[in-house]
């Protein structure tokens, strides 16, 4: 399968400032993922106290977001191949803003669970479209760096979430974390409505009405040569990419290994995102101190994104991702054994976040490079989908372990053992890709 002429043109051409600005906008939009995934976790200690919610029930509510993201990434994200990246992303941002606003007025954990389910569907759709859009507007030289930069928006969102929580929790209460989320997403929706461009790749593959003229307007804005014609559609109809395309003989082995790595990594990564504040509170911190640790983690997470992109210049993406997974597993054990003092816990949590978040970015770098134009959107969708299948298990398993009164070391040791699986599967994927090459 070959890439489309617009992909090839942008891949070979120098980057224009408008492309960098578009990626910066996608980075800002991605803050909503970091904020929304962490908002309930930061509200959890106060919410549990106010409503008397058991850890197991809270774990179900935390996992509702991931259930929605699975549905969004596997099923709804494909709508961007039919209707375009831009309208689908705008609709997703609107839904997330509404879900946050309604969460601020919720009166039970079940209401929050239902709202988190809808929010997750929108997030799953949004995350897939963001990654694909950044890849489609980047050339070969800058693609890994810009994908990592876009992912840094996730860590920025975590930092904003932690800052707002630290500001509002004590004087105003947990509901104002969701008020802040609604305001953030409405602001992002306004920016995206004004500045977000449609993907030339989508216009080439689907060829809606006036597709060539619309593509050339975008290419002219980017100071790229225009196209004289579009490639003919196979059978005269736009292509329909199905999941089966990821399991052809050429793609099957690496696809399955990427899915295994995505699934098991997410069990660990989303456990940490959901329960890290509670683990720190159990270790003796106040909820406000735990919120400040989240801000530090966001800074280390940004280093994780960017270090993955930088090192991928010298180390093949799949092999580098396996190394980051191994370091994540080692740091889980270290985080469980360090003394329960604020500076030490802060440092260990930050370094653990660096390798966890770097691994997350590595999975997307592997997927974007491995899949071609015809399979890229559904391929990235399955990476997100399998990650969020694992993220359903992670918070629920964390709730069961913490509810059973396991200490910090035993809880983290369980997840360190799980983290060995993505190390092995991504190592095998690296060897399989080297053999295919």
Summarize the structure in short.
The protein is mostly helical and 437 residues long. Helix content is 79%, strand content 0%.
Global shape: globular
Structural class: mainly alpha
The name of the CATH architecture is: Up-down Bundle
The helix tally amounts to 16
CATH superfamily: MFS general substrate transporter like domains
Q: What is the helical fraction, as a range of percent?
A: over 70%
Beta-strand level of the residues, as a percent range?
under 5%
Distance between the termini: 15 Å
Mean pLDDT: 85
Largest sheet entry: none
Secondary-structure element sequence? HHHHHHHHHHHHHHHH
Q: Uncertain spans, ≥5 residues at pLDDT below 50?
A: none
Tally of domains: 1
In total, the number of strands is 0
Which descriptors would you attach to this protein?
single chain, 437 residues, mainly alpha, Growth Hormone, Chain: A, 16 helices, 79% helix
Please give the structural blueprint.
Elements: H1 5-12, H2 17-51, H3 55-74, H4 79-83, H5 85-103, H6 109-136, H7 143-168, H8 175-195, H9 200-206, H10 211-221, H11 252-282, H12 287-311, H13 317-337, H14 342-370, H15 373-403, H16 408-436
Helix pairs in contact: 2-3, 2-6, 2-7, 2-8, 2-11, 3-6, 3-15, 5-6, 5-8, 6-7, 6-15, 7-8, 7-12, 7-14, 9-10, 11-12, 11-14, 11-15, 11-16, 12-14, 13-14, 13-16, 14-15
């Amino acid at each position: 399968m070959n890439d489309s002429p617009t992909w090839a043109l942008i891949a070979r051409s120098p980057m224009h400032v408008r492309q960098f600005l578009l990626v910066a906008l996608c980075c800002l939009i991605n803050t909503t993922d970091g904020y929304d995934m962490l908002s309930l976790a930061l509200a959890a200690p106060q919410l549990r106290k106010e409503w008397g919610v058991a850890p197991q029930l809270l774990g179900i509510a935390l996992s509702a977001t991931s259930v929605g993201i699975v549905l969004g990434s596997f099923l709804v994200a494909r709508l961007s191949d039919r209707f375009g990246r831009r309208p689908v992303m705008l609709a997703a941002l609107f839904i997330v803003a509404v879900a946050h606003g309604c969460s601020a007025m919720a009166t039970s954990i079940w209401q929050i669970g239902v709202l988190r389910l809808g929010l997750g569907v929108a997030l799953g759709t949004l995350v897939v479209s963001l990654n694909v859009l950044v890849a489609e507007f980047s050339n070969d030289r800058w693609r890994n760096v810009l994908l990592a930069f876009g992912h840094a928006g996730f860590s920025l969102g975590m930092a904003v979430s932690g800052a707002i929580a630290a500001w509002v929790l004590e004087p105003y209460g947990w509901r104002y974390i969701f008020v802040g989320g609604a305001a953030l997403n409405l602001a992002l929706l306004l920016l995206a409505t004004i500045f977000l461009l449609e993907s030339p790749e989508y216009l080439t593959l689907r060829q809606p009405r006036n597709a060539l003229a619309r593509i050339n307007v975008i290419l002219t804005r980017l100071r790229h040569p225009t196209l004289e014609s579009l490639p003919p559609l196979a059978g005269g109809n736009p292509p329909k990419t199905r999941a089966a395309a990821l399991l052809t003989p050429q793609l099957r082995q690496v696809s399955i290994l990427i899915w295994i790595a995505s699934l098991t990594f997410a069990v660990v990564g989303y456990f940490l995102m959901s329960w890290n504040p509670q683990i720190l509170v159990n270790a003796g911190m106040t909820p406000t101190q735990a919120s400040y640790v989240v801000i530090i983690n966001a800074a280390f997470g940004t280093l994780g994104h960017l270090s993955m992109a930088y090192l991928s210049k010298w180390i093949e993406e799949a092999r580098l991702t396996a190394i980051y997974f191994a370091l994540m597993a080692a740091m889980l054990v270290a985080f469980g054994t360090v003394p329960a003092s604020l500076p030490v816990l802060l440092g260990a949590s930050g370094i653990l976040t660096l390798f966890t978040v770097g691994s997350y970015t590595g999975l997307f770098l592997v997927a974007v490079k491995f899949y071609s134009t015809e399979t890229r959107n559904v391929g990235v969708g399955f990476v997100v989908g399998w990650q969020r299948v694992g993220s359903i298990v992670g918070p629920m398993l964390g709730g069961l372990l913490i509810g059973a009164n396991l200490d910090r070391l035993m809880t983290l040791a369980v997840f360190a053992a799980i983290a060995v699986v993505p190390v092995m599967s991504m190592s095998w994927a690296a060897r399989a890709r080297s053999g295919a090459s």
